[in-house]
Amino acid sequence: MESIHPQEPVDPQIKKRVSESFDRQRLMKLYGAKLTGIGRGQIEMTVPSSETLLRTSGNFHGGVIAAMADSSGGYAATTLHAEDVSFLTIEFKVNFLNQARGSKLIARARVIKAGRTITVAQSDLYTDYNGAEIQVATALLTFIKEKK
Amino acid sequence: MESIHPQEPVDPQIKKRVSESFDRQRLMKLYGAKLTGIGRGQIEMTVPSSETLLRTSGNFHGGVIAAMADSSGGYAATTLHAEDVSFLTIEFKVNFLNQARGSKLIARARVIKAGRTITVAQSDLYTDYNGAEIQVATALLTFIKEKK
Amino acid sequence: MESIHPQEPVDPQIKKRVSESFDRQRLMKLYGAKLTGIGRGQIEMTVPSSETLLRTSGNFHGGVIAAMADSSGGYAATTLHAEDVSFLTIEFKVNFLNQARGSKLIARARVIKAGRTITVAQSDLYTDYNGAEIQVATALLTFIKEKK
Amino acid sequence: MESIHPQEPVDPQIKKRVSESFDRQRLMKLYGAKLTGIGRGQIEMTVPSSETLLRTSGNFHGGVIAAMADSSGGYAATTLHAEDVSFLTIEFKVNFLNQARGSKLIARARVIKAGRTITVAQSDLYTDYNGAEIQVATALLTFIKEKK
Q1: ipTM greater than 0.95, yes or no?
Q2: Quick one: angle between helices C12-23 and C62-78, nearest 10?
Q3: Chain B residues within 8 A of A89 when measuring between CB atoms
C-alpha cells in the first residue's frame, strides 16, 4: 500500500492497523477494493470496474459509490487515533455529480472535524475515464466513536 | 413475486416491467436481493444475510443498506409511470438507527412526492431479528426522471 | 398551548418546561412562531405568514422552513426526558416538496429513534393554503444529548 | 460590495444582477446579511451577530446558519449564467461542526457541479471569534434551474 495523496504522514503503527482492519472487510473484498492511500485524517481506496458493480447503464452502482464513501470516511476517522478505536456511521448524504463510468472508482476521504464524540468526514469520489479523473460524487458523513 | 404490504395495487404491466428490470441488476443478484412487494409508489426488497454483506461486527454493512435504500426508492418511483421511464439518483441521505443484525434485511420504499422532473422517496430498512422486525435505517432520496 | 395531534400525552411538568424554553427562543419570536402541539416525542409549531419570512416569489423562505424543522425536531427530543436535558443539532437534511405558500407554516416533528447519546427525528412541514394542508418539506435530523 | 475571496472574476452585469436580487430578499435584510464577495460560481455573505439570531446559549441559531447556506449556494449558482435565471432549492444537508459563537457569521459557497438541470453547491460557514475564523458548519445543496 502506498500513499498516493498524503498531506501529512501517518504513524506506521496506525497504518498497519488500518491496513489489517481493511483486509478483514468482506464487502470490500467482494468489490475488489484496495486501500491505495493513507495520511493523517485521510484515506484513499480504489475499486476496479467489474460487471457486478455496474448498473445496466454501465455506470458504477450508486450503492457501490455509497459503500466506498462510507468505508473511506470511517477509516479516515480512525487514522487520527493511536489506540484501536472504531467508528460507527450515524448517517451520511451523497450527491451524485456525473455519470460514474470508467476503469476504476476512487474514493478520497478526509476528516473535516474530529470531535470528542462525533467525527465528520467528506469523501470525494472519482472515476478514471480514459486517463482523466472525473468527480462522480461527494459525500458528507457523520461518525460516532465507539467505546471498546 | 407477491406484494407484502400493498396499499394500492399496481398495474400488472408495470409489475412485469419492474420485475424484469430488477432481474437485470447485477449488484442486486450479487447481494441475493429479491423484489418482495410492489404497490403504487411502493417497493419492498429483501436480502438474506450472508457473510460477505456483513461487517466484521456481524451487522449488515452500511453500504449494503444504502444500496438497498437507493434501489428500492428508484423502483418505487418507476411504479407510478405507465411508460418505461427510468430515474437517476441525484442524492440521498441515510440515517442508521439500530444495529443491523438479523437473518434478512428488508427495504420498504414509498414515493412522497412525484413531480414533473423530481421525485422524492423515503425508504425504511428493517432486519428480521429472531422473528421481530427492527428498524435499522431510514433514507430520504431524490431522483430525476431520465429522458429516454 | 393545546396539543393538536397528540398520540400519547406528555407529562405536565415536561410540557411546562418545553413551553418555557420555547418562549425564550428569540428567533422563534422574531418569526412569530407558536408551539401548537406537544405529545410524547412529538412537537407541532406554527408560524403565520409575514412579509419578512417570504421570498420575493411569495413562498416561505427555505431558511425559515429549515429553522422550524430544526427547532421542532430538537424540542420533540426533549419531550422524552423527565430531566431538563438539551439537545444539540449535529446535522439535518431537508427536502422541499411543494411551493411553500399559504397563510401559515406548520412543522410537525416526531422522534424516530431515541438512543443513549444520539436522537433522530423527522419533521414534516405543511402550509395552510386556502384551508387545505399541503406538505412543503420533510427533514431528517440528528441530535446529540448535551451534558449539563 | 467587494469580492473578498474571488478566484475568477465575474461579469459586472452578473454582479449587478445578483446584488440587486439580494437586496430584495427580506429575510436577509431581517438578519442584517450583506453580500461580501462574488466570483464565478462563488458567493460570500456576512451576518453580524445580533440578539435575535442567537440561541439562548449565545450561539447563532442553526436555522440562521441553514438560511445563509441556502442563500449563498443559490446565488453562487446564478453567477454562472449570463441570463436572469433563478434556482429553486430541491434539498440540502448541513453539518454543524463547532459552536457558532462570534461577532459575525460568514457563508462561503461555491458550485461543485453545474448541470443542465441540476446544480450542486457546497457552502462553508465560519464565525469570526476574537479575530480568528472558526468553521461552524458545512452544507451540500441541490438546486434546480427554474424556467422563467
Answers
A1: no
A2: 150
A3: 62, 96
